[in-house]
Design a protein that fits this description.
Tetrahydropterin Synthase, Chain A, four-stranded antiparallel beta sheet, alpha+beta, 2 domains, 205 residues
Length: 205
């Protein structure tokens, strides 16, 4: 009887001895997987603190976003501009650290020739435009040259002989031409960008 008891007790101990390595192996596998996941998250920067979110005004002040011409009082100069992230022109800084923006000039080759309203006199001008946005503004002007010339000549035709001799006539005409160009560019490209108009030739005869 005593021998049978010893045999039975030994038989019960064998399964237990087999479970221990299995349990240890499972625990080791879990630890290995958890360690791998934590290491992956660490090296991908998951645990690094996220930078604070800045407002649009703060980003512009820090020079992280380009200034756009859709601010109050600038619609006539810059149009309905958005930042470059949307594929629209960005302002040209002289250097990454500079606060001032560079200038981009473009001369329209063909002259503008119109009759002065209520007069036999003829007005002939040549125009150059200035923008502080990138080359896309100039490209848009070239692309829509015919449409721009049409609206610009309409503006010139509205001039009357009595106005031509006024000291402020050229300044006023330049502003009206700039606004007409921006309105037309906004119509086709959703962005103007013309900030000033200069006369390289101005003849009334």
């Amino acid at each position: 009887m005593a021998e049978e008891a010893v045999v039975e007790e030994g038989a019960e101990q064998k399964p237990k001895s087999k479970l221990i390595p299995i349990i240890l192996g499972a625990v080791g596998l879990i630890v290995l997987v958890a360690g791998t996941m934590l290491a992956t998250l660490y090296f991908t920067g998951y645990f690094k603190p996220k930078p604070p979110q800045l407002t649009a005004e703060e980003r512009i002040a820090l020079g992280l976003d380009p200034e756009v011409g859709a601010k109050e009082g600038e619609k006539g100069k810059g149009g309905k501009g958005k930042d470059g992230k949307d594929g629209l022109p960005e302002k040209l800084k002289k250097s990454p650290q500079a606060e001032r923006f560079d200038f981009n000039y473009f001369q329209m080759e063909r002259e503008f020739l119109v009759n002065v309203t209520g007069s036999k006199r003829v007005m002939s001008i040549q125009v150059a435009v200035m923008t502080r946005y990138d080359q896309r503004v100039v490209d848009n002007i070239k692309k829509h040259e015919f449409a721009l010339r049409s609206v610009m000549m309409d503006v010139m035709r509205q001039s009357q002989e009595a106005e031509i001799n006024k000291p402020e006539f050229r300044v006023d005409l330049a502003k009206r031409l700039r606004d007409a160009m921006n309105a037309q560019l906004e119509k086709f490209e959703e962005f103007g960008g013309v900030e000033d108009v200069f006369f390289t030739s101005f003849i009334v005869q």
